[in-house]
Amino acid sequence: MPTITAGDKVLVSGANGYIAMWAVRLFLERGYLVRGTVRSEDKAVFMKEYFNSLGFGDKFETFIVEDIVKEGAFDEAVKGVDAIAHMASPFHSNVKDPEEFYRPAIQGTVGILKSAVKNGEKVKRVVITSSCAAVMSPPEKPTKFSELDWNTLSPKQVEENGANTPPMTIYRASKTLAEKGAWEYHEKHKGDVQWDLSVINPPFPPIHDVKSVITLNTSLQIWYNHVVAGLINTKEALSDSNSWVDVRDTALAHVLALEKAEAGGERIITTGGGYIWQEWLNVANSITPSPIPSHKLPVGYPDILDGETVVKITYDKSKEERILGIKFHTKLETTKDTLEDFARRGW
Questions:
Q1: Under DSSP, is residue 318 helix (H, G, I), strand (E, B) or coil?
Q2: Domain check: are 146 and 231 in the same one?
Q3: 336 membership: H or E segment, kind and range
Q4: Max Cα separation, the chain?
Q5: Claim to verify: residue 204 and residue 139 sit in the same structural domain
Q6: Statement to judge: residues 144 and 166 lie in one domain
Q7: Looking at the domain assignment, is residue 4 inside a domain?
Q8: pLDDT tens, position by position, for the chain (347 residues)?
Q9: 6 Cβ neighbours under 8 A, 6+ residues apart
Q10: pTM attached to this predicted model
Q11: Distance between CA atoms of residues 62 and 34, nearest Å
């Protein structure tokens, strides 16, 4: 399949989001034109000002899509673009009704593909932001997952428990069903279109419009609570483990997935590696001078790392290394840059 090149126009849905803002910036820096969808003109203001300040004012445009669930929501937005990065989907921890995640995640994802079938005459490829939440079911013992794995447990749990399901389980289920819906829709219509599909599955410092700590996206809010605020400070909690990725690397993965022919038809996990929460505290306290001198950073329990430690959830990175070849940021780089950004914002 043909890939995009500098000068082509990319549609980025949910362009004011956490990962999407970085992706928009990378697309612009690499010579692409970008059309970003947002829900309202108010949400477009920061983006226009920010990218204009970087000299991209004539390369970036916004397009209002008030409700991504609405039938034909992206019909006009996809016209004239060469590629699509669908990055609009909810992730917050205060959900009550599964439909709050399901409708925008599933209908929004399939909806933009429908629009690409209908009006995307120039589209060469669509990349979708999924998640490792669609890959793994929380394991009881240390497990390495790959792109061959699917989270079949979370959708069943939501089906059984409905509104009583924990929010993170609902989120995992929504990402699983949305990604499956995308692959199924493309398989059904691939004979009718000239574009192919690629999916990025990332695991769990913002440049999007964040006015205070409480408006941080969920994943960064959790990191802030552990590493800066010290609100998560039990030995058990700081011994917990998972996998991580720098937002800049996730954004780059979306760009490369549109550029590289080999990414077509592929599901690609992008991860910087595993972690134990105490590691982040140790890294933050090792940086001198402190990037955020207004805070006395929590020390936690350094002895957690004295013995043998095991990361419970890890991922096979071989496909990403073969197709995308990203040099991921280290924990030190990510920690330093994030803390410096918090300090700049007065947090």
A1: helix
A2: no
A3: helix 331-344
A4: 59
A5: yes
A6: yes
A7: no
A8: 458 999 999 999 999 998 999 999 999 999 999 999 999 998 899 899 999 999 998 999 999 999 999 999 999 999 999 999 999 876 655 667 888 889 999 999 999 999 999 999 999 999 999 999 999 998 999 999 999 999 999 999 999 999 999 888 998 999 999 999 999 999 999 999 999 999 999 997 444 444 555 556 677 888 999 999 999 889 999 999 999 999 999 999 999 999 999 999 999 999 999 999 999 999 999 999 999 999 999 999 999 999 888 899 999 999 999 999 999 999 999 999 999 999 998 88
A9: 30, 31, 32
A10: 0.93
A11: 8
Nearest 5 degrees, angle CA 86-CA 192-CA 111? 30
Query: Do 295 and 230 contact (CB within 8 A), yes or no?
Result: no
Residues 19 and 33: their CA atoms lie apart, in Å, by: 18
Residues 319 and 346 in one domain: yes
Residue 81 structural domain: 9-208+245-271
CA distance 339 to 347: 9
User: How far is 50 from 60, CA to CA, in rounded Å?
Assistant: 11
User: What is the rounded end-to-end Cα distance, in angstroms, of the chain?
Assistant: 46
Whether residue 101 is found in the same domain as residue 122: yes
Q: What is the CATH number of the domain that holds 201?
A: 3.40.50.720
